[in-house]
Automatic annotation (TrEMBL):
InterPro entries cross-referenced by the UniProt entry: Crypto/Photolyase_FAD-like_sf, PhrB-like, Rossmann-like_a/b/a_fold, UV-DNA_repair_photolyase
Pfam families on file: DPRP
Origin species: Tianweitania sediminis
Protein name: Cryptochrome/photolyase family protein
Record-annotated membrane-spanning stretches: none
Secretion signal, residue range per the UniProt entry: none
Length: 508
């Protein structure tokens, strides 16, 4: 699979170069239901072709179906069947378990001798996660994270966490203030070689109307480049990663983030080697930065994957907030006068990337407040981000950002008014709206929709102890103001979702 580019993975144990064949396929299937970001498609195909060439250089036989091969049947099951009929192998087809439940189900439905191998690119196996959740059915991320810290003996002093506390979130919520971000060394760039240039031509030719731009394509597409990116992060950006992990700034897509999720999710890097590089800490980063990163890597990332396999396939259909609207068209174009969304969507279109707080508290949050169907948010996320794989995208969007799972990924919805974005960014000062206003011509749509969200879901959320503060604030508002806010929110909802790019959901 395009997200399994590791020639040393468990699928290759016992590989016999004299008779075994590696099969790789570029397929239209995924790119056709939702308009995919060109950069995302190019990243996958370029990384796949580089992997093919590396494996061939090792003397391994690779059968590779290119996208525009006239014989290409353009879907996993159909193309696998065609290649199987060509090869007529004596043995079996070995598949590292896919990161997408639907792909696995489609392969299982084939009448072919397929053997699935457990993916060894995670620090918590599926069976280990099952055992943990069987022992504690309401396990939350924090409990899981502590168990992983103990198991891996990471940042521990005996039974206690290094520094006397398990997290340093309070130190990790700084904004850049008036001065803006301090001096940063941006992530390294890897100019396109001949292989990548051929892919860029192919993508431009095959998907001319898709969103995104292939200008300045400089993403790591090989393991060597991914390792260089890792080294660069731990040397240059890790020290400030912690305190500024929730901060946003106009024109800055990467800030102090590692930008390693793409290489990790395509298996160009292994989580254990990333963990070791961060713990080696060559830049003497403070504990809040190291712990903040470790939490994402061994806590959040592994938890998300465990939840995905534990709750699929029903998980994809969850919609705890009863959202009914489609994804607005401007999520593919950035054509909005809301400065924060324009910035975050711009980063998404230009880089197939936005950092986690833009995804959660701008892109995701606005869809939540608006009332977009959570599975649609997931489909958009899958189509636009270079690092999105089903196992990570679904719990992250449907669960965490849309609260569609009713509290599995987060114990309360990630909902806030425009004041949060104003505190954490420099966007509001350059916006036609006012973050503090919920009514009037210049009222911030986030703020209007936030109060409307609380009012609409009062019955579901007001008894949640973590929502007590927001509901006390809502109660202080005069009833006539709440009514006017709800009227304005209804008009906004209608206006903003009039146009969409998505067809009706076909999978949930
Ligand atoms: Fe976003 Fe509202 Fe701030 Fe404008 S005022 S940037 S819409 S939060």
């Amino acid at each position: 699979m395009g997200d399994q580019l590791d020639g040393a993975s468990a699928a290759f144990h016992g590989f016999d170069a004299a008779q075994d064949i590696i099969l790789q396929m570029e397929l239209r299937e995924e790119a056709s239901t939702v308009p995919q970001n060109k950069r995302r498609i190019a990243f996958f195909f370029s990384a796949m072709r580089h992997f093919r060439d590396e494996q061939r250089a090792l003397g391994r036989q690779v059968w590779y179906t290119e996208l525009d091969d006239p014989e290409n049947r353009q879907s996993f099951p159909a193309e696998l069947q065609r290649r199987f009929d060509q090869a007529r192998p004596d043995g079996e087809i070995i598949v590292l378990e896919p990161g997408d439940y639907r792909v696995r189900a489609a392969l299982e439905a084939l009448d072919l001798p397929i053997r699935f191998i457990e993916d060894d690119h995670f620090l918590c196996s599926r069976s280990e996660f099952q055992a943990l959740i069987a022992a504690n059915p309401t396990m939350i991320l924090e409990t899981f994270y502590r168990a992983m810290r103990r198991k891996l003996n990471v940042l521990m002093e005996g039974e206690e966490p290094v520094g006397g506390q398990w997290n340093f979130d309070r130190d990790n919520r700084k904004s850049f203030g008036r001065k803006g971000p301090p001096l940063m060394i941006p992530p390294p760039r890897f100019p396109a070689d001949d292989t990548t240039r051929a892919v860029l031509d192919l993508v431009e030719r095959s998907f001319p109307d898709n969103p995104g731009s292939l200008q300045d394509f400089a993403i790591p597409v090989t393991r060597a480049q991914a390792l260089q990116s890792l080294d660069d992060f731990v040397r240059h950006r890790l020290p400030d990663f912690g305190r500024f992990q929730d901060a946003m700034a106009g024109g800055q897509a990467f800030l102090f983030h590692s930008v390693l999720s793409g290489p990790l999710n395509l298996h160009l890097l292994r989580p254990l080697e990333v963990l070791r590089a961060v713990l080696a800490n060559p830049s003497n980063a403070p504990l809040n930065a190291v712990e903040g990163f470790v939490r994402q890597l061994i806590g959040w990332r592994e938890f998300v994957r465990g939840i995905y396999w534990h709750l699929m396939p029903d998980y994809a259909a969850r919609n705890a907030m009863g959202a009914t609207l489609p994804m607005p068209r401007f999520y593919w174009t950035g054509d909005t006068d809301m400065r924060c969304l324009h910035e975050a969507i711009g980063h998404t279109i230009d880089h197939a990337y936005a950092h986690h707080i833009e995804r959660l508290m701008v892109l995701g949050e606005f869809a939540l407040l608006l009332g977009v169907r959570p599975y649609d948010v997931h489909r958009w996320h899958m189509s636009m981000f270079w690092d999105a794989i089903d196992w990570v995208s679904l719990p992250n969007t449907l669960g965490m950002s849309q609260h569609g799972d009713g509290g599995v990924m987060g114990t309360k919805p990630y909902a806030a008014s425009g004041a949060y974005i104003d505190r954490m960014s420099d966007h509001c000062g350059r916006c036609r709206y006012h973050p503090g206003k919920s009514l009037g011509e210049d009222a911030c749509p986030f703020t209007t929709l936030y109060w409307d969200f609380l009012a609409r879901h009062r019955r579901k959320l007001s008894r949640n102890p973590r929502m007590r503060g927001p509901y006390q604030n809502l109660m202080r508002k005069p009833a006539k103001d709440v009514l006017a806010i709800r009227r304005r929110a209804t008009a906004l909802r209608k206006e903003l979702t009039r146009e969409t790019f998505l067809r009706e959901p076909d999978q949930a």
